[in-house]
Amino acid sequence: MSDNAGSRFAPQNKSTHERLSTNTVGLVALSDFRKRRAEVLEQQEREAREAAYSGTSTPDRSHTATPDNAGSDSASGSGVAPVKKKKKKLPGKKLLSFDDEEGDDEDSSAAEKNGSVKSKFKANASVGIVPKATTKSALRREAAERETLRREFVQVQEAVKATEIAIPFVFYDGANTPGGMVRMKKGDFVWVFLDKSRKVGAELGVGDQSTSRKSWARVGVDDLMLVRDTVIIPHHYDFYFFVMNKSIGPGGHRLFDYRNEAPPRPETPNARTDSADADRLLTKASKAPLPDINTLEGATDDPTVTKVVDRRWYEKNKHIYPASTWQEFDPEKDYTNEVRKDTGGNTFFYAK
Fold this sequence. Notes:
The protein is α/β, with parallel strands linked by helices and 352 residues long. It has a domain at 136-264 and 291-351. Helix content is 37%, strand content 10%. The protein has helices at residues 2-9, 16-23, 30-54, 102-114, 136-161, 190-204, 212-218, 239-245, 275-287, 311-317, and strands spanning 164-172, 176-185, 224-228, 231-233, 306-310, 327-328. Strand 1 and strand 2 form a beta hairpin. The longest helix is centred in the middle third of the chain and has 26 residues, at 136-161. Mean pLDDT is 74; it is low at 1-11, 61-81 and 92-102. This is XAP5 domain-containing protein. Residues 1-116 are annotated as: Disordered. Residues 163-339 form the FAM50A/XAP5 C-terminal domain. One of its GO terms (cellular component) is nucleus. InterPro entries: FAM50A/XAP5_C, XAP5.
């Protein structure tokens, strides 16, 4: 009875090693050993589950090789594995694999449905007016409007360039020799004006020599200079440049004071005009005589303001007044408040 009593109150929990020693006698093969060890571990797990459901003590897992799946933070410290209740899944709702954050997700989703949770940041929150998205049709419409404006501007430019003007001038070689008047267009270059003035000089026979006509016929455009007031205008500029930019020369006066607007358009055929009327209008326009040069813009200007000068004469006399005050045109220079000086740096104290 003493042995039975002693075995009754003795702890029934045996370690894995003790159980293997009891069930294994002598040398066994490695496969048999592994099989018996698996059976022992399975038996221990089964006893642990039965003890957990019955409320009895569980085997001391500190002596076994199996991990404690029940957790080590039990409130009683008795080693009893608490049974963890599974949460009941709601139909039609997918639960996440982590239970601790599941409740927070459910609360947040419910709050979002009720409208109580708002996003912390909004796109372009600091912008008062959010621009509308540009569609392809809007881009095409803007491109068409820009093209229409461009064409209108080009038409105005061409109309201004085609406008005729009159330029009275003199030949200057220390004294003014009347040269008459030349019909020009605002889009013509300076060298075109010099070429026409050269022909006028050959026709008038400007000069004291008997062969002045031949000398003017032989002179080249590069040998001539256009001096507007006291500014030498280079050959490659056109009059349209000075008209549109309203270029100011010395004394605050415009170098070429012509209008930058196109004249009224003559009568032209429109879409409602038939072919016969269109031909009549075109024929009438082609046969119309040129307007009198004296009625053109600029015909009443002072001819001494526009000087045609032989460059060779200028190179010989550029140190003598008034050639010493001439200067080549610089589009970046402000001539309004300029203090006029000669080539020696001497300031002129008379009127600008």
